[in-house]
Amino acid sequence: MNLPAAIYAIRWLIRDTFRQSLATGIFWIMLSVTVLCVLLCLSVSVTGPAALHDKMEPTGFVARPPRAPHESDEAYQKRLADLEREAARSGTELAGGEMTLAFGLFHTPIGRDAADAVHFLELLLAGGVADAAGVLLALVWTAGFLPGFLDPNAASVLLAKPIPRWSLLFGKYLGVLVFVAFQSVLFVGGTWTALGLRTGIWDSAYLLAIPLLLVHFGIFFSMSTFLATCSRSVVTCILGSFLFWFLCWGMNYGRHVVVAAESLRESAAGLRGAVEVGYWVLPKPGDMSMLLFDALKAHDSFGIAPEFKQVQLMGAFNPELSLLTSVLFAVVLLGLSAWQFVTTDY
Amino acid sequence: MSDYAVQFENVVKDYPTDILGRKKLRAVNGVNLNIEPGQVFGLIGPNRAGKTTLVKILLSLCRATQGTTRRLGRPVSERRTLARVGYMHENQAFPRYLTAAALLEYYGALTLLPEPEVRRRAPQLLERVGLADRSREPIARFSKGMVQRLGLAQALLNEPELLVLDEPAEGLDLLGRKLLREVIADQRRGGRTVLLVSHVLEEVAQLCDRLGVIAGGRLVFVGPTADLLVDSKTGQGRSLETALEGLYQKNVS
Predict the structure, then answer these.
(1) Which end of chain A is less packed: N or C, by CB atoms within 10 Å?
(2) Across the strands, what pairs with B40?
(3) Which residues of chain A neighbour B110 with C-beta distances below 8 Å?
(4) Is the pLDDT of residue A98 over 80?
């Protein structure tokens, strides 16, 4: 089969995946989450930002605290005055801004300036909603796509078509990836635009979340693909992908603990060796989250696990190699899935 | 290169019956069969005789354990010959979210037919199988018979040189069966080959030029249908049912 024919067939498989997502409602579920988040961003308003003294300096401000319950006005004003004096003494100032959410329903004082407040929101959306919950939910929602496609009664006629079996599987995998990419672009692009329109702050680094989230999803969807070719069971795909994600997280975190802890590093060479092998062979979701946080410059707003920070300081964290080996694992797993699919009797 | 549309040479297929694959079930046992181009060939046999397994080997859905199989003169490993084959499956489960028209476009694309060709042929075929007025409805709303008609339309989409019909009458009503007979007659007139797998004896006897009877994985009879209707010992006529009963009992036991 020539390349244009393969591209033509794969194009149709991608199109079919979109139709499947529409018919099963997954398209609309994911779109609803995006719409809710975009609406949340459109409801954001930031007022009275305090200017930063130094853009590189992370804590050059004192946040204005909210009034405590049952605190009298007099006591609150006194507390603010004390804080202002304290801020002036240390060469900073009291941040007096406020961020409102849900069109003024919720108020929260902002720690620094408007850009920082928007950045914080973007981190919550990219790191919390999309990276952690989003990737796992996307794995659940798309887990049924391949088993249904590979069911013998559904696949028999497709497999009697001239296109190679591997390209059927690859086309479907790619279809799911394109679908998730489409939803990621809508989510990240939509929230970025909404926040930009409301606050005038356009932080383009936030858009880096799109490729990083897609790579993260693609790596773990390769496990779902492998399980689908072996079992053709939706439940196995969901449970297997979840367990695998947690196993990889554990291995990733465990390796950094072993490397960071001096006592473990020196006393258990065997353990260190085993953990290193596991770490380099398996995908590294923790490292991918770290990459996302680095790309979004999240360290000013969120602390990272001390073990992760320690391996970074020790130079034992190689982001490029970590990402490359994770992707390599997915490629090998997809190769195994293709081999399994090609050699299966229908 | 062989001149046959379908050729099985000493084909054997074993299925593993345990996880380790140590125990095996022989589904097809040394089948030799040639089907000439332009012929309507019927393959019949009792349940679990190996009919569907032979079809699957022919269509590269599964691999023979032993032997050689050729499709349109080429080894079955050459998938490109599948572009000249149409296949109708007995329990077809099409994606329920597609409409009949969308399904033909999708399956046409996977048969590597040019898009304009599919757009031209799809409405004609839907008209032919009596689904033109339902072409924009999701398959989820179709009855079993309608799905079978759609299956027939997709099998004819590439104007196949070899049409493989596995229990095609399953779920079809009277008109559907008539349509099926017309399609087979058209294929014959066009000099195209048809392999019909069925357990509906009258249908096979009426439509096929030659017949293959498979029992216990072995091909126990190959020849013109008329040969089976005459008792070779007595020279007297007999029904197809009686002839097959004798063949099945002799070979399965």
Answers:
(1) N
(2) B194
(3) 9, 12, 158, 161, 163, 168
(4) no
Of residues A24, A153, A345, nearest to B62 (C-beta): A345
Query: Most B CBs within 10 Å: which of A8, A157, A341, A346, as the mutation test of the B interface?
Result: A157
Q: Residue A161: pLDDT band by 50, 70, 90 thresholds?
A: very high
Chain B residues in contact with A20 by the CB 8 A cut-off are 95, 97
- A116, two tokens: 């920082």
Contacts of B56 in chain A (CB under 8 A): 345-346
According to the model, what pLDDT value does residue A329 have? 97
pTM metric for this prediction: 0.84
Contact A300, A113 (CB under 8 A): no
Q: How far does the CA of residue B241 sit from the closest CA of chain A (Å)?
A: 30
pLDDT in tens, B89-138: 988 889 999 999 999 999 999 998 988 999 999 999 999 999 999 999 99
Q: Say what the ipTM of the complex is.
A: 0.88
pLDDT for the residue A101:
81
Q: Which residue of B80, B85, B138 is in closest CB contact with A160? A: B85
> Hey, is B180 helix, strand or coil?
helix
